[in-house]
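Good morning,

Attaching, inline, the backbone tokens for the sequence recovery test we're adding to the shared suite. The designed sequence is right after.
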């Protein structure tokens, strides 16, 4: 369900550790099928695995392409202070 994916990834993105978001995105990609997400996002499967591994520093374009393929997008909102 796209709404559940969006909520899950939004919560993960709030964590200050970027590996939390990458792990959550990796879980979603695996649940939806890595090969299909890779094909639909224009990436090879190995590149997708590498981009979503702990400690990786994927390009914005890669993350955005995967999110688009999953049917969700990034939104910027006012935070809770500094």
């Amino acid at each position: 369900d796209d709404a559940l994916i969006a909520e899950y990834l939004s919560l993960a993105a709030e964590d200050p550790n970027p590996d939390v978001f990458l792990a959550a995105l990796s879980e979603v990609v695996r649940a939806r099928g890595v090969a299909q997400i890779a094909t639909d996002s224009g990436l090879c499967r190995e590149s997708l695995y590498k981009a979503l591994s702990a400690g990786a520093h994927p390009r914005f374009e890669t993350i955005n392409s995967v999110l688009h393929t999953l049917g969700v997008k990034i939104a910027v909102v006012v935070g809770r202070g500094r």
